[in-house]
Fold this sequence. Notes:
Blueprint: H1 2-32, H2 37-45, H3 64-77, H4 79-98, H5 101-113, E1 118-121, E2 137-141, E3 144-155, E4 162-168, E5 180-186, E6 191-196, E7 207-218, H6 230-266, E8 268-269, E9 272-273, H7 278-306, H8 312-336, H9 348-360, H10 365-379
The chain binds flavin-adenine dinucleotide.
Residues 87, 119-123, 127-130, 153-155, 199, 202, 207, 357, 360-361, 363-364, 366-367, 370 line the site of flavin-adenine dinucleotide.
Amino acid sequence: MQQEKETEQQILDAVDKFLIKIKPTVHQLEADDEYPEEIVAQMQEMGLFGAVIDPKYGGLGLSVRTYAKIVERIACVWMSLTGVFNSHLIMAMSVQRFGTQQQKDKWLPLFASGEMRGALALTEANCGTDLQSIQTHAKRVGNDYLINGSKTWITNSLHGSCFALLVKTNPNENPAHKGMSLFIAPKGPGFKMGKALKKLGYKGIDTAEFFLDNYALPTENLIGLEEGHGLQHALGALALGRINVAARGVGVASAALKDSIQYSQLRKTFGKPICQHQSIQIYLADMALRVEAGRLLVDSAAVAFDKGERCDMEAGMAKLFATEAAMKNSTEALRIHGAYGYSTEFNVERYYRDAPLLAIGEGTNELQRIIIAKQLIEKNPL
Ligand SMILES: Cc1cc2nc3c(=O)[nH]c(=O)nc-3n(C[C@H](O)[C@H](O)[C@H](O)COP(=O)(O)OP(=O)(O)OC[C@H]3O[C@@H](n4cnc5c(N)ncnc54)[C@H](O)[C@@H]3O)c2cc1C
């Protein structure tokens, strides 16, 4: 236990040092919307691509609790960076949790080192929330699956080289999820990248579409080697992604709070710093409350995940609350900063542009409410 705490502190200290170094560069990288190659290389060196991968496969083997603390710290400086390893680790988690021993031995060391970097490919042009409506399909031909279709809004797809790819292996199955499978899908012949998508925020990191045209994968790339469990595997690993997004929410909410605490002491109106006006004090207090409450919910979801418990309700609550906190805090920070909040010279406008993604990605917040309510009913039958 003591050893674990010391390791956690060492890693958090290393992350803090890294963040102090990169902080001055973030504003320009964001403005240029440029992929931060050098920073990503440093993250790879720190082992972040293997953060929650078992050490026996070369990962750091961190608890999700520690992982969430790292994500919060990084998001407080530049939220985009947390997306570089989020979907990569969801992909890795789907193999770690649901893959065969052979699949773990083959893929996890490549993912842990960051030699192969990945993404999660679920969304299609016609569906994001309603994943059972996907059209991309895989047909078994001898020892291969031949895959046709397309995916869009896939983060890391330009710079990544491997995907956890959700497809239909039996489009006629009812319910549809029984005909869905998840594959480990490295780029190769038949995999064609489309355009990078232009976004409101989440700059620097790529989000793009791709097309699969008779793209062949060997049967050994089907996670768990059994068809029909793809949605379950994707959603099982996605709980980690929801905790990541929730921790990002706390990071953005807390960045907005920190900047507001500072600015409200510097800016004077009517002869005193604005932090002495009661309406500003109410903003600051509410913002701080959201940060603290969000952090506790993230921690409780991470603890449940670490115990190997089903945690979709806890992850859903953390994701919903913390990302709404990011939305609220970034709006209130903007108000506190007045015109300067609207200026691209200050970071506040970035928080305001980044926060809405958190309410959409990894399952919209409307969907989280449905998940929470369903779990409440399931856990409390009459
Ligand atoms: C920047 C960015 C990065 C992304 N990265 C990835 C990625 O790496 N991989 C990936 O697979 N996807 C990714 N996505 C896609 C994202 O996961 C989807 O956008 C999200 O799941 C919502 O799907 P949709 O956009 O199709 O909205 P829709 O599903 O069309 O939903 C539209 C609206 O209807 C609501 N709604 C839908 N169904 C219900 C319901 N049953 N009850 C109540 N309300 C409902 C939604 O909450 C939303 O408000 C990314 C998206 C963005 C913006």
